[in-house]
Amino acid sequence: MSDSDLQRWRLILGSSAEKHTGGLSGDAAGRDQALSWLYGRDPELAKRGIRGDGGGAGKEGGDGPSALTTVDWLDSVHRLFPKETIERLQRDAVERFEILDIVTDPTVLERVEPSPSLLSAVLRTKHLMNPDVLALARKIVEKVIRDLMEKLRTEVRQSFTGTRARRPSRFKQARNFDFRSTIRANLGHYQPEERRISIEQPRFFSRTQRSLDQWQLILLADQSGSMAGSVIHTAVTAACLWGLPGLKTHLIAFDTSVVDLTDDVTDPVELLMKVQLGGGTDIAKAVQYGAGVVENPRRTIVALITDFYEGGDEGQLIRSVRKLVEQGTVVLGLAALDEDAQPDYNRDTAQRLANVGAHVGAMTPGELANFVAERIGR
């Protein structure tokens, strides 16, 4: 086994393996120090009889290297790890170990790698920031939102450009290329010696243009702390849907109060800087407000984005949703609206809403855009 393999196993197994693998040197030693600074804080280590080294807390005296500061640690991980690992380390630092100076200390913010997890941390801690730090944090918000907008705009555009019909088309456009039909039509041109098919008759789908009547999309976003990721993606989704023909979009945030943010939809950065994560939750109050915004019940989608942990009147919530459904409104109960769509939610309340006619589940922003496009194009 080579020295590099031994050092890799030492990094995986920890310091207790050194008698078999030998010590670390160079970049491997730096990686070990950076990982120990962060994950040495894990209280589970003490339960397993392993001494943690995180941040110098409880560290025994000796002649080893001095404890890292957060700035030193960030410099190290940016130098020693690939980008995807950096983002994971930063996310664990903020979310798992609550090292908040990553998003409240200006010298740290200048070095941090913008990512959705750090954006969530900024939204949770922006009330702790002085104006100078807040200005730096806003740059993180702007960078992450710009990246999310660019990605989602493409998905929204695809959803709203018409559905593919099964009829063939004479118009040759790459986005309408019919792969299966093309293969079937050209099997006779298969060249065994080259193991390829010569395409002489490409086939394409036709697209049917959606007939768009005026619809409303009312997004009700729970801004409790656990819903940070969904709040971010709701703001970006609303901005991408804003101004589409045939669709009038509203965005309403709530905890125990209700705030109509529709006027800020076109600027998701400004909108998110106004969001106050945390606090209680009154879902019933938000649904009642949303019901008051409905103009044409049979041309309205109400998307309730929440973890369904109701702090208000659950009976009133069920009655309000039932009334919306009975009048012909489409009600979506989304336990998550983000890229992962893996929610943690109150299943009992969600089931009660499903029982009165709500569509309950989790979606990515692209899936929500496609759902809306399919509904209003009928």
Automatic annotation (TrEMBL):
Annotated Gene3D superfamilies: von Willebrand factor, type A domain (3.40.50.410)
Superkingdom as given in the UniProt entry: Bacteria
Domain VWFA: 214-373
A Pfam family hit: VWA_CoxE
SUPFAM superfamilies according to UniProt: vWA-like (SSF53300)
InterPro entries (UniProt xref): LolB, Uncharacterised_CoxE, VWF_A, vWFA_dom_sf
Identification of the protein by name: VWA domain containing CoxE-like protein
Organism the protein comes from: Actinoalloteichus hymeniacidonis
